[in-house]
Amino acid sequence: MPTDKEVKKAFKQTASKNPDQYYATSVLKEEGFKRKQCACKIFYWTACDAPTCGDPACSGGFRFFGGKTPAQRELDYVGVWNEFASHFKKLGYTPIKRYPVVARWRNDTDFVQASIYDFQPYVVSGEVKPPANPLVVPQFCLRFNDIDNVGITGAHYTGFVMIGQHAFMPPEQWNQAKYFRDIHSWLSKGLGLPNKEITFHEDAWAGGGNFGPCMEFFSRGLELGNQVYMMFEQTPHGPRELKLKVLDMGMGHERNAWFTKGAATSYETTFPTVCKKLFHATGIKVDEKVMEKFLPYASYLNVDEIEDTEKTWNFVAQKVGIETKELREKVLPLAALFSVGEHARSLLFAISDGGLPSNVGGGYNLRVILRRALSFIDKYE
Ligand SMILES: [Zn+2]
């Protein structure tokens, strides 16, 4: 049996040869989008003849700070979910409450890492009925692979809310065009984005033996979400259509609010009151001029993607126009302050859902962020 990675690669080729069969191209065409191929080989859909696919690496980083957001509606953090839930209710979805972030119903993971985790394995496999169908959910998730990026890139979190749009349907009731039209209507009416500011990527997804096409959506270099259509399963005799097809759209709650505000970092939109309190308590001040120049390049310092940290700091400092040492002195205390707020928030959710910092399994992850926050407090207090 091929691995998920091989399945994804092969299916992506199949799907891009027959886009009309696997993507909601009728809706895209109706909305005035055209299909193009980027230099990075990705097939994408644009309504303004955009020259690249819109991925930050191809389009030159985030471009929505400082009054440049193209969103015509400004939503605060809580407002995003309230608006999203009422928008989708009108479209026939039931908004449900989040599940605990401690994944007690699963034995393969300690924490919920995506909204679809709520429904794995038994709802997705068809053995248990979903709580509503279709549904939307604001699911708090924990992921610990990006800890060192928290505070620095302005976009990374250990704890975040994934807004999920899910449907679990037999093939005869599956309506991919509707699911796609619904999420597009959130972008255009919910966020107030004109079509020329949205780029859709054709992609494929594979996991746990299932696979299908997916569409990622970007604006101004920021990936807002990804709509996955789990439609097939891999068998020893080749691919087979699933008896229960699953819609798995995941969108970053924090990113939606950040994007419509066009704020410098997403932390100040997600927990503004906590930021204010921490600024007051520490006396740390933001050098607006430096930060304005730094933030478009902040994503370059993503530690997962860079090989030579020192070289990258030097490169970014050059772009900002100050010495590397000075840039670090401006950025690191701020990164520490945001990390303290971010880690405290993750711990608050985990502990109130029954998790505890310890020396094993998921408890160890909680201990790592608790220690990281405490060490920043020691260093900068
Ligand atoms: Zn590209």
**Discrete helix count:** 13
Shape: globular
**Distinct bound molecules:** zinc ion
Report mean pLDDT, rounded to a whole number. Answer: 93
What would you give as the CATH superfamily of the largest domain?
A: Bira Bifunctional Protein, Domain 2
**How much helical structure, as a percent, in the residues?**
40-55%
Q: Describe the main β-sheet briefly.
A: 9 strands, mixed
Strand content: 15-25%
Order of helices and strands: HHHEEHHEEEHEEEEHHHHHHH
User: What's the total count of β strands?
Assistant: 9
User: What name does CATH use for the topology of the largest domain?
Assistant: BirA Bifunctional Protein, domain 2
CATH class of the largest domain: Alpha Beta
Rg to the nearest angstrom?
21 Å
How many distinct folded domains?
2
Order of strands, main sheet, comes to 1-2-6-7-8-9-5-4-3
Descriptive account of the structure:
With 381 residues, the chain is α+β, with helices and mostly antiparallel strands. It folds into two domains: 4-259, BirA Bifunctional Protein, domain 2 (2-Layer Sandwich), CATH 3.30.930.10; 264-380, no CATH class. It is 40% helix and 20% strand. The protein has 13 helices and nine strands. It has helices at 4-17, 19-22, 25-30, 56-59, 77-90, 176-190, 253-261, 267-270, 272-282, 288-298, 309-320, 324-352, 361-380; strands at residues 34-37, 43-46, 94-95, 135-142, 159-169, 199-207, 210-219, 222-235, 238-252. Strands 1-2-6-7-8-9-5-4-3 form a nine-stranded mixed sheet. Strand 1 (34-37) and strand 2 (43-46) form a beta hairpin. Helix 5 packs across helix 7, helix 10 packs across helix 11 (309-320) and helix 12 (324-352) packs across helix 13 (361-380). The termini are far apart. The mean pLDDT is 93. The structure holds zinc ion. Zinc ion binds next to loops.
